[in-house]
Amino acid sequence: MGFLTRFSLKNAFAVFIISFLLILGGLYSFTRLKVDLLPNIEFPQLSVEVIYPGASPQDINEQVTEKLETKFKGIDGLKKLQSSSFESISIINLEFPFDTELDDAEQQVNSFIKEAGLPENVQTNVNRFSFGTFPIFNISLFAKDNQDLENLVNEEIIPELNKIQGINSVSVGGMTEDILQITIDQDKATQLGLNLNEIKETINAKKFSFPAGNLTENEIQVPVRVQEKIEEINELENLVIQSKFVPNAPPVKLGDIASIEVVTEKPEITRYNEKESLSMAITKKQDANTVEVAEKVLAVINSYDDRLEYAIGFDSAEGIEKSVNTLVKEGLLGALFASIAVLIFLKNFRATIIAIVSIPLSLLISSIFLNQLDISLNIMTLGGMAVAVGRVVDDSIVVIENIFRRVRKTNKAMTDDLIQDSTKEILKAITSSTITTVVVFLPLGLVGGITGEFFLPFALTIVFSLLASLIVAVTIVPILAKFSFKKVPKEEKEGALQRAYGASIKWSLNHKALVIFLSIALLAGSGFLVKGLGFTFIPNEEQKLLVATFQLPSSTTLEKTNEVSVEVENMFAEQKEINDVTVGIGSRDFQTGLKRQNQANYFISLGDGVSVSEFIPELEKEMEEIVLSIEPDAKIGIQEQSTGGPPSNSNVNIDLYSTDLTALQDAAARVEDYMMKQDDLKYVSNNFSEKQKQVIVDIDPEKSAQLGISGFQILGTITDKTKPVDAGLMKLGGEERRVSITYDEKSETIEDLKNTVIFTQQGPVPITEIANITETEAFTSIQKLDGKIFARVSAQIDSNDIRTVSNTVINGVQNDIDLPDGVSLEGGGGSDETIETFTQLGIAMIVAIGLVYLTMLITFGQARIPFIILSSLIFVPIGSLLGLWIADEPMSVSVMIGLLMLIGIVTTNAIVMVDRIGQNRTEKGMPIREALVEAGITRLRPILMTAFATIAALIPLALTTSSGTLISKGLAVTVIGGLTSSTLLTLILIPVIYEVFFFRQVKKERSM
């Protein structure tokens, strides 16, 4: 790369122009980067949702879920298949490896759905899962001055929001719906032999429009259309209806047997701080800029501030901006600290400016590449920049320091030739050290799953920044040195530090065995610290947004659920720790996406100073006192809102399998009770805990055949008695409304159902003559994993040692709980995935060391030299483990990435020293010991400068209070500790190891 230095010195102005253009391009690219919390990752998961109205969980399982599971098992590469069968809906989740082409998988899924032979009246929907599926906003809207808020939202706000590029969906809860309600007089309808489905068919027959060919008129074809419409309510009232089953029954007008009116329904209730509101949830497209979309959404809503008020219950953009600002602040502080460290060593302001110019240039150049690859500005890319800040100055430091040293040594003016020779002298060292650090990140591709996907932007950011810093060091730095210094400041005399270090090298070389023994003893001693560190995936971080829910028995009405919720909301209002509460009653369940009239969901925002871990149990106890006093069988839960991102893996799962559902429920209840008593667990959940009463109408096939009645006819008659019939949409009086047909008296009890009359060709027949009606209990859902019915009892681990807690819980369940016969057990959870990830990272580190060796072998051309350099890595754990122990940080993925980075960073110092040793021996003909001492004293300052610059840059990240992310305090502490210990040991140990590897030549030289 020496030609770059020659070209730069000869074409300084052109290089400055290129640099200026790169700065402009970098600034432009940086402003164009999409701002998001997390990398744009689509999970290799598909969710199939099948709606089968009116079907029980058992029917859903048999007629929908099992048929689809049988088909889906044949999909290429399917990793996991999990299904849940609820009343009226089946949800099947399919998980694939991360290298799966989801378009092909989704095509196979849609093809299998068509071939599965599902019932005719089902609706299917296939969804993908990504971070874009999480709402970026939950906004509560309130009307001003008697404004018709629903009309404003539907007619103006939603259309405006949908114009925003990047909006995926806008859904509003708490809306009312006007329905055309046709209430049939049941006694009159029975006398005439009419049922609701007949009335529905008659109405639908009057709203049709079909083409009927063409007429030719003056050689022009005119299309003919036949249509019949009902356009006014009075026309609907005059609609004549005739019974099919009672031919002698007189025809009757609909208005004679029914009342027709427009009624208002509210399928869900939403409030904000006890005040009625509309609740708007907004999701963005996967590749959209979250912050930009959020700003445009608020701009639209603010434009209606004269007609509405709003309150934000959940705002992911605010959290993103906070995280981004924190990392930017830490990066800037890191750059400042690195600059101060360089200034302390160089003791020259202009030289420091030249050295640190690589920081903004390198980061801006990396921004150009990030923009071209469409990588967003997120915690991973910003974390990469924050970590790279200290490392990108290393090459520039070595170059400027060597130029200064050579100029001082020759006592000549700063000429192009001298600058070029000075740069060339250390070119091999800085190139190999930079490439070494870069190749360390290549094995991250071996880390599969979501962890590898998350770290790709982080790794790319560092790689781009380091490569850019190398180019800057051999082009811009020499030019700036030439123009900034006509005369180099005098070098201070050899200081006490250099003299002491020179003496320590000589002593160490004379006591090699002792030095190696003490180093190994320190390494072994640090190993004892591992047990006390804990073992987790990502350190836990408290979230100030809670998700709470209570669920009443499945048959509970919306009105009853609302009454209970009012009591709970009153209690929330009295809690000083709570800032605001957004509630949805009858809205979608957070986990399943199902709408449940018996469930209330809450977003609870807490104050900044609240201890979440202490407050949640108190709040849960208050909720239990209210809800359980009203309904003892209710289920209650509170937990922190997930921020998305990589799984924390801080969960433990107990999966129970059995074909006996009653035994399975019993086993799940026992395990749940055991886990609730464990101090290190929180948020215990059981997916198999609820039963509800069910009425079975068992048809006698012989009697129904004798009377000429089909099972579907009986089904239709009973359905008419228990719920309204949806007759679709109808436009009357210029307003299009949904039409609902119902009896004036519903069947409320099993006795009412037994009094049902079925119309046959032989006349009316009581249902009890052709069917046996009994009452039983059935499960509200059936859960299956890979085709086997299972119950999962899961909990989050409230500890930074997830492996120990997970093993303790699993062993406790296996040994201390007596499970019913026929129930098998499997324990697992996040600990398994964490161990797998750690194993992959361990392999990546071994591969990284191999690549570093290969790089240095190519650079130095000797097999022994790379081993000498790599010996500095052996003692990295000493400082890293000690640092983690002092900072009370557990072993985590963040720590493992820090150790991986250290492979590249630490070898840099050894390369700089070993390169100088080689130059002394080959170019100056020095004996080995003399070459070692001279190289150590000469390279002491650049080694200390680069190490302290990197350490100083990471201090803000190490002191941060923001944890729980992959780029966290743990990574910074690991690098600082490991770099400190390895630098100190490298300065002593590398000369010792060098002499050990060349002991024959040393012995020969000393004997001469």
Instruction: Provide a count of the helices.
Output: 33
The number of strands is 31
Compute the CA-based radius of gyration.
37 Å
Shape: elongated
Tell me, rounded to a whole number, the average pLDDT: 81
As a percent range, the share of helical residues equals 40-55%
Distance between the termini: 40 Å
Task: Characterize the main sheet.
Answer: 9 strands, antiparallel
Q: Strand share of the residues?
A: 15-25%
Task: Report the structural category.
Answer: alpha+beta
Low-confidence stretches: none
Sequence-ordered SSE layout with sheet pairings:
Layout: H1 2-10, H2 12-32, E1 42-51, H3 57-72, E2 80-86, E3 89-95, H4 102-115, E4 123-130, E5 137-143, H5 149-162, E6 167-173, E7 177-184, H6 186-192, H7 196-205, E8 208-217, E9 220-228, H8 233-237, E10 240-241, E11 252-253, H9 254-257, E12 258-265, E13 269-272, E14 275-276, E15 278-284, H10 290-302, E16 308-315, H11 316-346, H12 349-356, H13 358-372, H14 379-391, H15 394-410, H16 416-439, H17 449-484, H18 496-510, H19 512-527, E17 545-551, H20 558-573, E18 578-585, E19 599-606, H21 612-630, E20 635-640, E21 651-657, H22 661-676, E22 681-686, E23 691-699, H23 701-706, H24 711-722, E24 725-732, E25 735-743, H25 750-754, E26 757-760, E27 763-766, E28 771-779, E29 781-785, E30 788-797, H26 802-816, E31 824-829, H27 830-860, H28 864-870, H29 876-887, H30 893-923, H31 928-958, H32 969-997, H33 999-1007
Parallel strand pairs: 7-25
Antiparallel strand pairs: 1-3, 1-4, 2-3, 2-29, 5-15, 5-16, 6-15, 7-12, 8-9, 10-11, 13-14, 13-18, 17-19, 17-20, 18-19, 21-30, 21-31, 22-30, 23-28, 24-25, 26-27, 29-30
Helix pairs in contact: 1-16, 1-17, 2-13, 11-12, 11-14, 11-31, 12-15, 12-17, 13-17, 14-17, 14-31, 15-16, 15-17, 15-31, 16-17, 16-27, 16-30, 18-31, 18-32, 19-29, 19-32, 20-21, 27-28, 27-30, 28-30, 28-32, 29-32, 30-31, 30-32, 31-32
